[in-house]
């Protein structure tokens, strides 16, 4: 593991951070994305109910079965979960969230991750949700871990799509270095021009986000309508987090879906088995853990492999 770990970190360091400065050369040759309204992924399924909890937009789909709370990742909205809504709304009650600052929502406050966690806890209490399952992508998966640690009896399960309890590649950082990295990321996105942020989204989606370049450009139009400063604040919060000490307190079963694309990974000397081992190492301590690979796929695995992601979630839910 010693020889492989640095290579894994080099590949994964940008995964949780949509604002990360990746793909400079490819971005320079690409035009900024068009307005998000032109994206074919912008249309969403009309919910049965729409309301807010402390600035978090909640859209409810379905009205029976175990409650599922779907949390998108950085710079994403409910459009991430449209395939999931179609697949599960007939069997479950889905609460699909959009966090402040994302997808055109008003900007997030100074400590958005903690505020989002409190809002989800309030949603569960107000709606009297019995053992809901949090299904989160990236940042949303991290939020699921935080909720499961803070109140171990609150959740019935956690599904994390490429979200981990510590930012990959920073697991050995001392607290001061972690804080410095967080401050740098916050500052980087605090005053970035809209055009530059849109170009970052396109570069990210083409190199880290999804496999298909046309799809990447379409999805970048959607992530690009988020507030850059809010993205920076959430990213800073995530960089500063290390949830590993509390993993042993999680009572709910946990499923982590780990995307893998060989052409990205082989140049790093990274096999799918090595990546899964790395994820398991970062999740060590979770009492009931399942780590499953999804290939070929990049960070937004639900767009690259919708059937595999949907089937893995369905099997997990039926096993609860």
Describe this structure in words.
This protein has 320 residues and is of the alpha/beta class. The chain has a single domain, classed as Alpha/Beta hydrolase fold, catalytic domain (Rossmann fold), CATH 3.40.50.1820. 42% of the residues lie in helices and 14% in strands. An 8-stranded mixed beta sheet has the order 1-2-4-3-5-6-7-8, sandwiched between helices. It is globular, with a radius of gyration of 18 Å.
Q: How confident overall, as mean pLDDT?
A: 89
Low-confidence stretches: 6-37
Summarize the main sheet. Answer: 8 strands, mixed
The rounded distance between the terminal residues' Cα atoms is: 33 Å
Shape type: globular
Spatially, the strands of the biggest sheet line up as 1-2-4-3-5-6-7-8
Q: What class would the helix/strand composition place it in?
A: alpha/beta
Could you give me the name of the CATH homologous superfamily? Alpha/Beta hydrolase fold, catalytic domain
Q: What top-tier CATH class fits best?
A: Alpha Beta
Cα-atom Rg, whole angstroms? 18 Å
Q: Number of DSSP strands?
A: 8
Output the keywords.
alpha/beta; about 40% helix; eight-stranded mixed β-sheet; globular; about 325 residues; Rossmann fold
Give the helix/strand layout.
Layout: H1 5-12, H2 24-28, E1 49-53, E2 56-61, E3 67-71, H3 82-88, E4 93-98, H4 112-126, E5 133-137, H5 139-150, E6 157-161, H6 175-190, H7 194-209, H8 213-223, H9 228-240, E7 254-259, H10 262-265, H11 272-282, E8 289-294, H12 301-304, H13 306-318
Parallel strand pairs: 3-4, 3-5, 5-6, 6-7, 7-8
Antiparallel strand pairs: 1-2, 2-4
Helix pairs in contact: 6-9, 7-8
């Amino acid at each position: 593991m010693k020889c492989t770990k640095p290579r894994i970190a080099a590949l994964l360091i940008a995964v949780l951070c949509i604002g990360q400065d990746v793909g400079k050369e490819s971005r320079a040759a690409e035009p900024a994305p068009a307005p998000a309204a032109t994206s074919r992924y912008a249309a969403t399924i009309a919910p049965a109910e729409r309301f807010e909890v402390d600035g978090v937009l909640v859209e409810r789909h379905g009205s029976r079965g175990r409650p599922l709370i779907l949390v998108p990742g950085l710079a994403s909205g409910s459009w991430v979960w449209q395939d999931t809504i179609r697949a599960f709304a007939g069997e479950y009650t889905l609460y699909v969230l959009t966090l402040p600052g994302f997808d055109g929502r008003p900007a997030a406050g100074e400590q958005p991750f903690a505020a989002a966690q409190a809002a989800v806890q309030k949603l569960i209490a107000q709606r009297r949700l019995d053992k809901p399952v949090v299904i989160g992508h990236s940042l949303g998966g991290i939020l699921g871990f935080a909720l499961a640690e803070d109140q171990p009896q609150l959740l019935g399960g956690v599904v994390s799509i490429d979200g981990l309890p510590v930012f990959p590649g920073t697991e050995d950082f001392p607290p001061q270095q972690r804080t410095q990295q967080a401050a740098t990321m916050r500052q980087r996105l605090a005053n970035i021009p809209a055009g530059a942020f849109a170009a970052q989204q396109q570069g990210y989606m083409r190199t880290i986000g999804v496999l298909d370049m046309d799809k990447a450009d379409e999805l970048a139009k959607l992530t690009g309508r988020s507030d850059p400063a809010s993205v920076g604040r959430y990213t800073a919060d995530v960089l500063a987090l290390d949830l590993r000490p509390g993993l042993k307190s999680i009572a709910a079963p946990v499923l982590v879906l780990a995307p893998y694309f060989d052409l990205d990974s082989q140049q790093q000397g990274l096999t799918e088995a090595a990546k899964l081992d790395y994820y398991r190492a970062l999740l060590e301590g979770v009492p009931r853990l399942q780590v499953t690979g999804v290939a070929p796929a990049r960070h937004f695995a639900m767009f690259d492999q919708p059937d595999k992601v949907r089937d893995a979630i369905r099997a997990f839910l039926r096993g609860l």
